Amino acid sequence: MEKKEFHRANLPHFQQPGQAYFVTWNLQDAIPAKALKDYTEKLKLLRNNIDYSLKENQPKEKIDALRFDYNILRKKMMKA
Question: Fewer CB within 10 Å: N-end or C-end of the chain?
Answer without folding.
Answer: N
